[in-house]
Specification:
The structure holds two protein chains of two kinds. Chain A is of the alpha+beta class. Chain A has three helices and five strands, in the order H-E-E-E-E-E-H-H. Helices cover 57% and strands 2% of the residues of chain B. In chain B, helix 3 packs across helix 4, helix 3 packs parallel to helix 6 and helix 3 packs antiparallel against helix 7. Classes of the chains: A alpha+beta, B mainly alpha.
Amino acid sequence: MTNDIKRTYVMPLVVLTAICLVVSGALAFMDSITGPVILAAAEERAQMTMADMIPNATSFERVELDDVGGLPTTIREIYKTSNGVGFIFIAAVNGFSGDITVICAVAMDGSIIETLTLSHTETKGIGTILEQESFLYPFTGLDSRLEGIDTVAGATISTRAFIRAIEDIMEAFYLVEKG
Amino acid sequence: MKTDKKSILTRGIIKENPVLVLVLGLCPALAVSTQAENAIGMGLATTFVLLGSNVVISLLRNIIPGRTRIPCYIVLIASFTVLAKMAIEAYAYPLYQALGIFLPLIAVNCIIFARAEMFANRNNVLDSVLDALGSGAGFTLALLAIASIREIFGSGTWFGLELPWLADNNIMIFSLAPGGFIVFACLLAIVNKISKDRKVRTEHDCTSCPAAVACGKRNER
């Protein structure tokens, strides 16, 4: 009888717990090796993209989101140039399928320097318009009114999401610029 | 039950090809097969997880109690998936981006679970390694076949190389989900046509099941 209890209840628990413990250890070890590499690479990619967008910036400082009140929830990261050229915003909005991450450089006078799609999972051949120069270029030089910008037929949901991201970014710009 | 080593290895590639014969793992097979390069990456990542889980499950086959084997397998398979995900994110970032959500989803890939349940938990480590390599290669090759057709006609490229004429006359549906199903169905039809001479699959008994050799339930009927 005690043997039965041991076999039906104790052993499965012990084995499963042991497996979970060993496996957690292995994962923690792997994370300690790859974690810093992943973080460093992400930071480097971000810095390189930002340097491309505002070439005359000396360096970029991260703005803590908690220090700025009332930011739109889509804003993920804010950087400011240390020599006061402008700001860089990264926002993530819900697109047609999954998040669209948008990066946008804004000059001190509130005009858009450049905007790019960092990552997205929109439909290939349709939502990929978000990567195209013809869609992105018209944003350059505009202010928060975004005059002349409209959704693109055939990719309405993707482009509307992108425009919303830019609107949120402009809203965030006035918040950080004031603060 | 005794099968020679070579047939364990080749079985997963042709006779029991996970995608084209067993029709398993279709979610990643259809989703990631828009580009040949991604197909290879997905295939290798899956093979790695398959190899790891098969080895460990085979080693622990006498320790893991029958009642809790499924949670044990899930923990092990999920862990190998996370290991693969961390390694790919750290050292092969473009591939990590291309595979997207389907990389963590290897954890619930039924091919891996099928090999654990049908093979690794009742065979020794060496055989399980061969089985994993065979099934992994079969998965990779099937994905590569689907992806090559879809990339060549859908994008006019192959492994990122632009092909003359096709690049200007690409058929977009091949890159989209319906194209994946169409290509997959055509390949399945071809494989069925070729293997028809070997086996008539009309009755629902074990002799018509391609997994019968590995399946322990064979003699229970």
